[in-house]
Amino acid sequence: MSPSVALQEMIRAIRSARTQCEERGVIQRECAAIRAQFRQADNGGRSHNLAKLLYVHMLGYPAHFGQMECVRMIASPHYSEKRVGYLGAMMLLDEKQDASLLITNSIKNDLSHSNQYVQSLALCTLACMGSAEMCRDLAPEIDRLLRGTNSYIKKKAALCAVHIVRKVQDLGELFAPAARSLLSEKNHGVLYGAVVLITELCAWNPETLELFRKTVPDLVQIMKGLVISGYSPEHDVAGVSDPFLQVRILRLLRILGRNNEAASDAMNDLLAQVATNTDSTKTVGNAVLYETVLTVLDIKSESGLRILAVNILGRFLLNNDRNIRYIAMTCLQKIVGTDHNAVQRHRGTIVDCLKDQDASVKRRALELSLALVSASNIRSMMKELLLFLSSCPPDLRAEAGSGIFNAAERYAPSQRWHIDTILHVLTTAGGDMRDETVPNLIQLITNASELHCYTVHKLYRALLTDISQQPLVQVACWCIGEYGDLLLRGECQETEPVQVTEDDVLDALETVLQSHMSSPATRAFALTATMKLSTRITDNVDRIRSIVSIYGSCIDVELQQRAVEYNALFKKYDHMRAAVLERMPVIERNSPGHTNGVSVGEAVKEIQPAEVKQGLLQQNANQVCDLLDLLGGSEEPVQPSLAQSSTAPGMSVNTASTAGGDLLDLLGGLEPTPHAPAPTLTAYEKHGVTLTLSCEKQSDSGLTVTLTASNSTDSDISSFTLQAAVPKSVQLHMKAPSGDSLPARGTAKVTQMVVVNNPNKVKLKMRLRISYTRQGSAFQDTVQIDSFPEVSTAGH
């Protein structure tokens, strides 16, 4: 029986095993036989034994004892053994194992072999499991093969170079000249490997990116040849010529054209040609079109081309394939902020996707629909979103409700519409809303004083209909407690008049208190509302007193405490009850933004200066100095200089801090003197990132260094971090930074304070490591500061 048949028999025996125990027994016997044959010096069936061991490894059983056999077979002069040996090395070895270092010399010899298939085996193995040490040793050999004449070897060498660049970024400069020369090749496999290699080189090194921007015309010509070429059976896939190469070239063009107008202009015509000539009825054509759209939206393309790209995504939304619809909405979500009007044209199609059966498509359609809401379409979009909320899955209700709340707050045409929308959401899916819903709605109702009667009537009817939605019940209880007198009058022009008696209102609140569906927080709202009604009604005060007294022995501590305090109001402090339970004042909004078209800042009243006595001014000024530390305005002690006792109100008083002066100005129109700016030093300026340094001396040995970073490029920077190192005799403490992202064009900065203590007064040096991510690429740089600007002691 030949060894190959033995392999087949082993596979047959393993597959015919009825239990896992029987399968383990077969594999253990085979592994023992393989181990015994490995020990024999003259073993003619080594390749077949290793093949059987690789099958055992694929099943998940240990096969590490075959690693040395792989090393021996790689060194064999026979191709059949080399092939199995290299395959075993790729499966059984990795860069963390010492045995991988033993094959470095064999790979180097095989890279110079006369047989191209032996060279191919060595290239594939190095690209699969080559460690950083192996890559450094064999990189010159790969560069030599890239410059050769054999297309079969060059395409594999290019992909091997990609692995080397990923392992050792410093070796990218070695492959750049050869990679550029490969673009003149006619072989599609070599072109594909070259494009992948250039993409990897540009992603790691900005200087290489600038170098390869000169190759944009060559890439455009290659792409045009693929688009307008006739039928080629060797490269045609569903009517598209080599779509794999087209996709790779489009990705490379996207990297080269990003934030570069010259490169973008050179590829605009090509992208328009690809977008109009590619067949969109097949998945292959859609893949090319999708990469084209991503490239158009990422470079500095013309406005007409961007509209064409959005229209392609609109056609994707009509595709029957849910995956294509999903990626289309994902892409539209990214550009809705910059191309809002173009995306708005496809609003109807996007809203229709809310009815899709697929959960992921439905979620993406919801996010995009919420992003499309504007002041002009708020009514129509909200109608669709409320319809979706009534039938959406439970896991989407919280997200849909929050999105509707935010949209209604930003674009509500009127306060009544705003309140009706929020109440509709609470009635439909109140149990899934977030905790901040109740206080936000209460604040909205409080500010709409002309709608108090309308709101309390509507909430009362909602309370009688359903008490399962806890946020709705809580808001209804609060409104009944505050505006119960308006409810009892029955005079509301906004709704049909309904006659409500005091007993009806108390019955409703008692139902909430006694319901098993009511949470402790809801019962607390109902109990407080009942107590507040004691000052708004006249005939049922005794009933309210009995309701409150019942909960004085409630098992819930919060409810018990409220009841005991309310009983005390009835008994000991009845004369204060009316004042304590009077209507709540209007709640001021302290969050930035707009509500119903009115800026929050317009509601802020001007503070009038008051007369301040000299002693009180001295005390307040000292308190202001203490507040400066809490506000982060200054790290130094501030010593306000006060005038003589005859100072009149409004007379200027000098302070040592601008922030302190602003606060003192509230006390009587005081004018601060400007603080001398700390000396600054530009410590780092590279690739659009600028880092400035300012120093402030706190004592003879203490120094506070403020690092300020800004970004002057056209792309945002994320994951921005600073690390600092000083000599061993110096103590260093880095405080938390103000953020980790730098918006484009210097719209915002990141600051970080470093406290340095130099007790031995050695010459101060500091080394800074700057790390950040831009456009998906990570950057890291180091700068050393040998001299600091001269500073004076703080406060002098």
UniProtKB/TrEMBL annotation:
Keyword Protein transport: yes
Signal peptide stretch: none
Top-level division of the source organism's lineage: Eukaryota
UniProt domain GAE: residue ranges: 676-789
Record-level GO cellular component terms: AP-1 adaptor complex
Location(s), subcellular: Cytoplasmic vesicle membrane; Endomembrane system; Golgi apparatus
Protein transport listed as a keyword: yes
InterPro entries xrefs: Adaptor_Complx_Large_Subunit, AP1_complex_gsu, ARM-like, ARM-type_fold, Clathrin/coatomer_adapt-like_N, Clathrin_a/b/g-adaptin_app_Ig, Clathrin_app_Ig-like_sf, GAE_dom
Membrane-topology descriptor: Peripheral membrane protein
Family, similarity comment: Belongs to the adaptor complexes large subunit family.
Protein name as it appears in the record: AP-1 complex subunit gamma
Primary site of residence: membrane
SMART domains found in the cross-reference section: Alpha_adaptinC2
Pfam families xrefs: Adaptin_N, Alpha_adaptinC2
